[in-house]
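Appendix B. One record, verbatim.
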Amino acid sequence: MRRDEEGAGHRHLRVQSLVLEELRALLRDDVSDPNLIDVRVVAVVLSVDYRHARVHFVLKQPVVESRLAQRALERAIPFLRVRLAEAIEMKRVPDLRFVFDGVEPAGNDGGAPCSA
């Protein structure tokens, strides 16, 4: 039984990482909303049953109002879920909830992922 739990934990982290990378790519390459230009996804926290995902994001520039970015992300949820379903083979695509984590510190190139 212990072995199953370890496998599920590893799989959970892998799926969480896949969702994070796919959302980053979608926002970078496929979303054209001007309110999302300075949005960067820093973490995804997937529920144990894979039904819900909390997506943490930061703004690259303090110029963009966080409420505008939040609303734009909420409008993009149906599109993002469809694209996630196409990119990642899962039984169920998680419901996405976006959480604003602040403004990205100056000088951060976005190369290293933020831990959550």
